[in-house]
Structure formats: C-alpha cells, structure tokens
Design brief:
The complex is a heterodimer. Chain A has 26 helices and 17 strands. By secondary structure, chain A is an alpha+beta fold. A 6-stranded mixed beta sheet of chain A has the order 2-1-6-3-4-5. A 6-stranded mixed beta sheet of chain A has the order 8-7-12-9-10-11. In chain A, helix 2 packs parallel to helix 23 and helix 13 packs parallel to helix 17. Chain A starts with 6 loop residues before the first strand and ends with a helix. By secondary structure, chain B is mainly beta. Chain B is globular. The N and C termini of chain B lie far apart (36 Å). The chains are: A alpha+beta, B mainly beta.
Chain lengths: 607, 79
Amino acid sequence: MYGWHLRILRVNLTTHKVTTEDVDPKIARDYLGGRGWAIHYLYKEMDPMTDPLSPENKLIFATGPLTATPAPTGNRYMVVTKSPLTGALAHSNSGGEFPTWMKRTGFDMFIFEGKSPEPVYLFVNEDQVEVRSAAHVWGKDVHETTDILKAETSADARVACIGPAGENLALMAAIMNDKHRAAARSGVGAVMGSKNLKAVVAMGNKNPPLHDPEGMRALSVDTSKNVGADVKKGSNMRIYGTSYVPQVTNTLGILPTRNFLQGTFEHVNNIDGDALKNQYLIRHTPCYRCPLSCGRLTEVPDGKYKGKGEGPEYETISSLGTGCGVSDLAALLKANYLCNEYGMDTITTGMTIAAAMEMYEKGYIPESVIGQPLKFGDHDAMIEMIKLMAYMEGFGKDLAMGSYRLAEKYGHPEIAVTTRKQEFPGYDPRGSQGMGLLYATSNKGASHMEGDVAYEEVFGVPVKENPLTTEGKPELVKHFEDSFALMDSSGLCVFVAIRYAFNKDRMILPERLAEMMNLSTGAGYTPEEALKAAERVYNLERMFLLKAGSTEDTLPHRMLHEPLPDGPAKGKVVELDKMLPEFYKVRGWDEKGWPTKEKLMELGLPM
Amino acid sequence: MMIRVKLIANYREALPPEAKHGVVELDVPDGTTVYEAISRFDIPLNDESVIVLNGLTVDMNTPLVEGDMVTAFSAIAGG
C-alpha cells in the first residue's frame, strides 16, 4: 500500500508510554484515512458514553492519504474526539503546515490516551518520540508557546498547541497550529487541556511513498493550473479569503445578526472584504502547497486595537462581528487575534457573547452578574468578555460553557441558537432550508463543515439551488455530508476538493477525487466506492452519536418558531418537519433516525 | 424607471466609478428584465455567476419594477 504509512503512534499520557501499531490495509481502504480512520478507532476502542473531559476520552490527530503528497491543498488533518461542548462527536479540521509535518514523521495518526500527571508536550521526529515537560510553557499563549517550542526543538518543526482557554477547559477551546490555524470547533482544545497535553511538535522527512508518482505529479500540475486560472481571473478567495461572504449572505438575508434576531446587518459595508482589503490587509498567507491562498495576514498598526495576525475569515465576521452587532473592524480584528492567541473557536466564542448580549438587553442577566453593561455593538465589552472566557474569570466562567448552558442557567433556553449545544455558523437556516436540515442532523452539532449545502443554496457551486425551498433538500444534504466525509478523510482542503466532488455533469460523483486517492494509494477506488466508503464513515459517526445519547435531530426555538423579521427570507422559519422524515428514508435510517440493520450490513458496519 | 445593481467582491471591477459600496443606480426602460440589466456589465453570464433579484432566486427573464435590486457575484467556494 502507498499514500498511507499504515502506522499509528499511540501515546499513553498517564504512563508516558509510547507504542506504534500497524494499520490493517483493509481497514485503511474501507475507512479512507483522516476522519474515517479516526472514527473507526474511536468507535472500536471507546465507550461513547465516556465523560469527554475524563482520562478515558481519546484524542486523535489524523492525516489522510493525500496529506503530504503533491496534491494541491493535500495538507489537512482532523482532530477527532468526544466533544465536551456537545457530548457528541467532534471532528475539527485544520491546514497551515503542521499536517504535512505531522505525516512526515512516518505516522498517519496519533492517538492520545489517559491524562498526564503534569503538563507535557509530545515531540516526534520520525522514530524519536518523547513526552517532555511543558511546565515552562503552561500558561503561555499560542504564539509564545509556538516560538518557545520551536526554539528548543528545531526551526524545522511545526507546532500544534493549546492556549490558556484549553488549559482552563473553556468549552470553545481550539487546538491551534502554526499560530494562526485552528482545529477550532466543539472544544477539542479543552480535551487536550484535560489531558495536560500542551502541544504536539512534529518533524521528519518521511514523505509517504506514492503508488503512481508521475501520475500524481501530472494531475497535481493540472489541478494547480485549473485553480491558477481562477486566481488569474481574480478569484475572490485569493483576494478576499472568505471575507467577501458577508455581502453575499446579507444580500440573501441570512447573515446572522444580533444573535439571529435579524438576517441583515445595516453596517455590513464597514466590516466586509473590501473594508478589510483597503484598510488592514498586509499580504496573502497560503497553507503549504495551496494555489488558492485564502489566508491573509492583517495588521491594525496603531491605536487601542493594535495587533497583527491572520484573519478574519467569514465565520469570524459573522460571529464576533454581525452576530454581536459589532461594526468596528479594528476591534473585530483585535477580537480575532485574541481568540487565536488564547486558542478559541471564534464561532462559539462570538455567538455565546451574542447570546449574553441579548440576555443582558432583555434583562435576563443583570449587569451586577456580568460586571459591566453588555449591549449589542459594544465591541470593547466583547473584547473584555473574550479575556474573561479564556481565563475563566468572573462572568467568563458562565460564558466559557457556551450559549446553551448559559441560556439554560439564566432561565431562557430559547435564546441559545445551537444544535447539540453547538453554536450555529454564519448561515441563518430560515433563509437556507437545506442548511437547517444539515444543522439538525449533523454528527457534530451545528456546523457548515459537516456538508455545506450553502455551496448550492448560497454560492451556486456547482449549480444554484433556491435556498427557500425544501424540495430535494434531503438528497442534497445526504450527498454533501457524504462528500464532505470523503474530503475530510482524504487530507485535502474543502475549498479545492469541492471542485472534484462533482462529475462533469455536476452530479455528486467524485471522479477526480477518487483518481487522486488512487494515484496516492493504489487502492483502486471507483468514484462510487469512494462515496460508499464516505457513507460508511458517516454512518459509523452517527452510531457513535446515538450511542452517546445525542438522539434528537432538531433545531432551536428561534429557527422553528420565530420568523425572520427582515430581508428576502422575511417571514420564514425552517420547515424541518417537511424534510426530516424524507431525509431518514434517503439515509436508510428508521423513523427515529437510527441506521437500519440493512443499512449497517450494506456498509459492512457492526450492528 | 430606476433600479439598482449590486456587484460583490471581484465583480466590482466591472462597475463605473460612481458606484458606492458596489451599488450603482440605473435608469432603465420599463419591461427591462434581470438578464438585460445585468448584461450591461462585463461579468460572465453563465453558471460562473450567481444572480439574484432582491436577494431571491428568480428566472432571468423576470421583468424588473421600480426600486428593484439585482445582485451578482462569482460562484465560488464559500465560508
């Protein structure tokens, strides 16, 4: 076998014992890699009812068969574990450089078990694997930690680490790599913190051997040319990253504004991609081997929001920005930089503050509890709340539990806009019905990265679907979920892989993605087999979710009972009951949403 | 009648200099369709573009009425 190393590194943090294992080639093929391999191991080895912050939870870093290959954007890794935010599955994806460096250690996957008695970090340089003290970096932020660990190991190493938020077990803590990139969602950083694991430092020269290096090179050159042609045409992604998206979602009336009380933001021009480009953009910062280059280094050169870092992406603008009613771009950048330095998911951070703002304005949480006023649009208060959350100080202790627990604690659960206790990303599903079905059924709670049907409903990729209708959405959601499981398992970035998730007739049939996987691995997937493997992954994740007790596929009160008051989707709620039963049928699940015996047998999954 | 056209992100290069925040006002004859209005700008008129009327997905032959806003942007991976 090629493409995969077929080797796993297992680290027992309780004993600091490190072992290596081979992967069965049949398992490798059946579960693709990355996200797929990780759920196979998690499901096999761990009781889904495990307490997420206990030593019994496992934390898995997983690369795919296209990670560290010449495939453009073949540079992603997944963090898979049981989420302390949702109590369901977490699988969070990141790029940068760390994923390639991790795979060059000669291992596809790291599995962390137990809990270290004191803070440690893992250093891996091929077969030199050491669990080292992290006492000197515990308490330090992501930037400081990264600099110190690179200085004491090697400039050629790459670092994934947690900041204060992860150490303090804030439920929106991310795992940051290469300083600015985040495996952000579902509190994976808190799981790392609960294990006293501060960082993972990786390096090596073991590129995976390829089944057909020449074919891979040729296809990669062709793909890069294809992407390069878009870039030449003035690709939005190259110029703006995703910061152009607020104008799109505002036009459609689905831009989360003031905790989803509205779908349009009157100050959108202050915080959109053009404002960012004209005022604070320094240069593009691509992930390793990416021809698209959506990352951007920005700087607020002076004033009280002075700072420098990467971002913001759309999801940060729609949470810390419009979600909180914030229209001051410099303050928004500062909030983004702080989240990266403290190691926090900007979506859950922003939308939790947004929920607190609504509760403050409605008088549900008094100023005496918060310690200060907290109105929508108060960007200084927002920045202060971020600090309190990261360090679990004062009202920050409530905020650090996420909006679901916050709203419940103060007696108004209807304020939280979450599914499976995870905050919504930047698409109001009342004006994007397919996204509503996706959020309700996602294995990881509300997430656009679980099967982003906004590609069709919002962005017209590969074809434009009417976002306000429900017809055909169950099939669409299933296909997108499966194709995202394939992309996440492959090691490619969705931004490029999405182009190859469709065949020439724009049907969801990943011909080119399967071809890339074959050139790497020699596994000989047909496009249908690759998609079937992805469906296997999705269903196994579903089984984990259900056995973890997260059995209800629903949406929060606001989405089902409070019509949008403004914009093109005015008057709409999510018509979930029109889509959910059909979705279960399309998936081969029973009327309660459990995969049927027939479906499990068809996919070769355990009963 | 007066209508507005909004172009987003890289499509803004196709706008005249008087456009503000990507929006330009146009005086068009009665009966002008979405397609005819957007055809005045140098952007791809195929599935490379997403074109909406007042934020809604409509037939490109829909006739416009006073005050309508036609918005277009490049169809590409999102956020």
